[in-house]
Amino acid sequence: MYDCNSARRYPASLMALALAVTATGGARAYDVNDKLTIGGLLAGAFQCQQVSGFADSENLCRGAMAFQPELFYNPTEQDQFFVKFGFAAGNGLDENSPFVLAPWSADLEDGVKDINGRDRSYLLEAWYAHTFKIAADNTIQLTGGIIDPAFYVNENAYANSEYTQFMNEAFVNARNAFLPAYDGGGVLVWKFRDWTFSGIGMNVGENDDGNNYNYYAAEADYRLTTALGEGNYRVMYSGTSRAFLDPQGEQREKRAGWVLSFDQAFGPVVGVFLRMGWQSDDALIDLQSEYSGGFNFKGSAWGRAADNIGIAFAYLEGPNWSPAVEGAIVEPPDPQVVDGTLEAPAEAAQVLARTNVFEAYYRFAFNDYLALSADVQYMKDRYREGDDVDGWVFGLRAVAEF
Question: Which residues does UniProt assign to the signal peptide (predicted)?
């Protein structure tokens, strides 16, 4: 049975608030004047998981909500200041899910506090950008401040938003692309005709090992327009400085990876996306490669032009090293004596062999501002040793954009 009695009540109140906000209409962004614009979103989700195969897993329901106001200030046509805040209540299933992948890849309560160990909470982005217009189809934009690299690289027309598209993190960004968000850095974007070239450099407060590190990424994006529709074809490389522990927990290693991301429209109704990614396994990682793809169907096919259906599948592989080889990280340590008491060793870490993910959603748009999505996910994690886990996640998501 689902443990619904202990589920948090936030999403119910959020959905009611979203309905109230949008019942009288409005706009996705409010223009204070010709230079200042205020926008954002209010989102809530309620998800239930039904899990089997893992001894400590529970069948339960959890909810969470997120509020992200943002402000644009354009003193000139070439200059822009941007500030974005993130507030959240609850962590959804993240605290109770036995799966490797998060069933809702949103910025929830824990994610908006003490961001990257910087002792900064709720301020997600704050940057200034200047655009150099060389010609009508040739521009260069420079951005500096607190940035989110996912805004510039690893985009996809059909699988890139946890608020309006797929919820599972496998379909929001490439899981192994490694995109550290909301820290100081700079971006260069050059748009020339149908090409876009993006370069990013960041310094990130700390990783899970407590180490400060540098991050960089580069992407080339080609837009293809045919009689069938528009498509985008991207190749991305990302890497870090030597700041991540190796599988033995003894040395620091770099992280590096490649991602291919494609999306293509096939007529006015159907869209297709494909992502493939690989990263090195010198550092301690949980997933090394990813292959995902899916379809988008616009509601114009059944008289609901603003609605859409998304269907996707992903296959992800764990690192190449095995528990037998990496005993120092997988086997539990010897018992320790603390204050005269013999403490039991920590549970052995598991090495993931592979993960399969399926997700489908229907997004029902009430108007231009409010939409409700019904979502279903199936995940199966297989480990080289230990218990495998598989199960279903059913969810509802309400999002009001203003």
Answer: 1-29
